[in-house]
Write a structure and sequence with these properties.
This protein is α+β, with helices and mostly antiparallel strands. It has 24 helices and 26 strands. A 5-stranded mixed β-sheet has the order 2-13-10-3-9. Strand 17 and strand 18 form a beta hairpin. Helix 14 crosses helix 21. 33% of the residues are buried. Bound molecules: 2-(butylsulfanyl)adenosine.
């Protein structure tokens, strides 16, 4: 085995040792470059990566004769070593719902018409355009000057990459022509054209640098360079397709807005078209799919958007996607490979999920070595056996799946797969209950896998979002007994003071990375109510329901008090909980289960001793219905029931399904019955649709 001199200070290395070290460092840095560029999945902290590069540089300085042909020093600034400033988007950057078939698109159109209260044959114009496979960016112009460029980030908060975007030729520094609004945020896709990508990789190969796996990764890596000079050397391009804040807003139609963008100096995709019918849209889709390979940029589908902006505004968004747009995706790409093994992963709710371990294979430009098998039924239904040759598919950002087995290639003697009856981690029995599809470990909090998964969920992106606390770190802290519950994360820094050895001396850690971790943890000592709630990992409380509950109860104190009362199903608190539009008995039961368990209450209490939870922001605190509870009953004529509900929620109101003493307002249309009577009995204010529209200001 090659000797390892990594612990010897640079100035004490002999020439032979230095040569070995340079070889090791080159390989190590190359490995991390690949993880960073090709997989977008770095495994070391930036500071650690920097340390490797610095050591390499120092040795090269001392032994100039030993500088290798493939020296990482010839590829300076490959990975970021500091951070970009965070920017909160003035309007969130949304993502798109997917449609994989004509039927899905037809459903989309039906939903839109229903929401708007239009008849199913009412005319509806939509734009259609290619869906570019790059990364989205938001460009802010004030008085026609480019002042801020940001990545999408999590949709709410992105990173300030202004200096890098200033180097992109397609992005105007000053808007051209006239008539642009004082504030204009143009949104669109940054990408690298295929021919440019091939040339870039050819250049990298010649210079012994890491190669990018695909144009998307190349674009993403280029945009997040700390040195704008490097970004400038990359052939980045930009298509404008949308906008954020615009004031004053002169637009009335999607298509016309794009035409304005073009006049002001942006590139807009020339294949953007306007249509009126489902079959025209689908013809467009078929055509784009046919010419896909001839385009000089990667696309993964087309996007349909309602053209009329009045309609867009009324439709608003559901969750993190607009109701007025949909991505019509190309079918998943497929490949054939061998199933080497089936791994069982234990999730935070104890579900045993089978994962296919595959002989690595490239699907749509990405190397795939594992795929989900969903559950025991799925394996049985497809009769998937270890050793089988299987067809796998990967659609966009969805986890790869096993589609089917190639039976004629089944090895002789392959046995049907027997799903485990014991949890592979804690050996508790694993069972299936009722109509649950999942086999679950019954170990509960005894099962380390469940506990670790809960902690991982706790620090994940939409929860506490603690940078530097990935799977490996959480697992290590758990196994060393340092972090067993969320509150422990906030006690780590203090514990570390008396720890022997301190974390700084653990393998894979250093002074800087520990410092960064504690800084990241401390940044989260104040947290929004909705993130807090989501982080607890209660079944059926995903980010949407967490947001709904947060908005309804306002503060964590009010919420906990209400849940405490709601345990008794006869109480008003319970009635209110299940009546929150979108909550219902299933979620209520999950909440009762969670807070009914003493251990969970203690986890929450401990955590509240460490963090401050911010009250939920009313969506709009200035509206006359903000904070009020509204019930809609009877038929609405000017807007559909779902639209009325969405509008009320946008204005900061809560919408409930039934009238109680807590109801502030009942909006009654023709045909209203018992709810109206109940409102009268309770003395709740009742108004008609016209008065509601006036109140809502529309
Ligand atoms: S519209 C609210 N149009 O797709 C609508 N997105 O899945 C937001 N994308 O984050 C996006 N081409 O990065 C839109 N012509 C296009 C697009 C496009 C690519 C990306 C974009 C977005 C993602 C959503």
């Amino acid at each position: 085995m090659m000797k390892n001199f990594s612990k010897i200070p640079v100035n004490r290395l002999s020439a032979e040792e230095a040569a070995v070290e340079l070889e090791r460092l080159a390989a190590e840095i190359r490995k991390h470059d690949q993880l960073y560029y090709q997989k977008d999945a770095p495994v070391v902290a930036d500071a650690q990566y920097d340390a490797l590069r610095l050591r390499n540089e120092a040795i090269e300085k001392l032994f100039p004769g030993l500088v290798r042909a493939d020296s990482p020093g010839k590829n300076v600034g490959a990975a970021p070593s500091a951070k970009f400033t965070k920017v909160t988007h003035s309007q969130p950057m949304l993502s798109l719902g997917n449609a994989f078939s004509v039927a899905d698109v037809s459903d989309f159109l039906e939903r839109v018409r229903r929401f708007l209260g239009l008849s199913q044959d009412a005319p509806l114009a939509l734009t259609a355009e290619p869906k570019i496979d790059g990364l989205s960016a938001s460009l802010r112009y004030e008085g026609g000057e480019f002042v801020l460029g940001a990545t999408r980030g999590d949709g709410e908060v992105g990173e300030d990459i202004t200096r890098n975007l200033q180097t992109v030729g397609d992005i105007p520094k000053h808007l051209k022509g006239d008539g642009w609004p004082d504030v204009l945020e143009v949104r669109g896709e940054i990408y690298i054209a295929r021919p440019d990508f091939l040339a870039l990789n050819a250049r990298n190969r010649k210079e012994g640098k890491a190669l990018f796996a695909n144009p998307r990764n190349a674009a993403a890596g280029s945009v997040r360079q700390l040195d704008p000079a490097i970004t400038a050397s990359r052939p980045l391009r930009f298509f404008a397709y949308g906008w954020g804040e615009v004031s004053p807003n002169p637009f009335q139609e999607q298509m016309k807005a794009l035409e304005s963008f073009r006049r002001w100096g942006f590139r807009v995709n020339g294949k953007t078209k306007l249509f009126n019918e489902l079959n025209e849209l689908e013809k467009y889709y078929d055509n784009i799919e046919r010419i896909r390979a001839t385009l000089d940029y990667d696309i993964d589908g087309v996007v349909y958007k309602i053209n009329w902006l009045d309609y867009q505004a009324r439709l608003g968004q559901a969750g993190r996607s607009p109701r007025w747009a949909v991505a019509r995706k190309f079918p998943a790409e497929k490949a054939t490979t061998v199933l080497l093994d089936i791994d069982i992963q234990v999730g935070r709710t104890g579900a045993l999920t089978p994962v296919a371990k595959l002989k690595p294979v490239t699907v749509g430009g990405v190397v795939v070595s594992s795929a989900t098998l969903h559950n025991a039924d799925e394996i049985a239904r497809k009769d998937i056996r270890i050793g089988d040759t299987v067809v796998i598919q990967r659609a966009g950002d969805v986890i790869p799946q096993v589609v089917e087995v190639v039976l004629r290639q089944r090895p002789r003697g392959a046995q049907p797969y027997r799903f485990p009856t014991l949890c592979p981690v804690c050996k508790s029995s694993a069972v299936r209950e009722g109509d649950d599809v999942a086999v679950r470990c019954t170990g509960g909090l005894v099962c380390p896998a469940q506990r670790i998964e809960r902690l991982r969920h706790f620090v994940s992106r939409n929860a506490f979002d603690i940078e530097g606390l990935g799977k490996k770190q959480v697992q290590a802290f758990f196994e060393k007994g340092l972090v067993h519950s969320p509150a422990d994360i906030f006690k780590l820094e203090k514990m570390n003071r008396t720890l022997e050895p301190p974390i700084e001396e653990w393998e894979g850690w250093g002074e800087q990375s520990v410092k960064n971790l504690f800084a990241a943890v401390n940044q989260r000592r104040t947290i929004s109510f909705e993130r807090f709630l989501f982080a607890l990992g209660i079944r059926h409380v995903g980010d949407n329901n967490a947001a709904l509950l947060a908005r309804t109860y306002g503060t964590v104190e009010a919420f906990l008090a209400a849940i405490g009362e709601a345990v008794d199903m006869e109480t008003q608190a319970y009635g209110e909980l299940v009546n929150i539009d979108g909550i219902g008995p299933k979620v209520a039961e999950a909440l009762m289960d969670f807070f009914g368990e003493e251990h969970n209450r203690k986890v929450v209490d401990d955590l509240l001793g460490e963090v401050a939870v911010e009250p939920a922001k009313a969506v709009s605190s200035s509206s006359p219905v903000s904070g009020k509870t509204i019930v809609f009953t009877g038929t609405m004529e000017k807007m559909s029931r779902s639209e009325a509900k969405a509008l009320a929620e946008r204005l900061g109101a809560k919408v409930s399904g039934s009238v109680s003493a807590k109801t502030d307002l009942v909006v009654a249309g023709p045909g209203a019955g018992s709810k109206l009577k109940k409102a009268a009995g309770l003395g709740v204010e009742v108004i008609d649709e016209a008065a509601w529209l006036k109140l809502a200001g529309s």
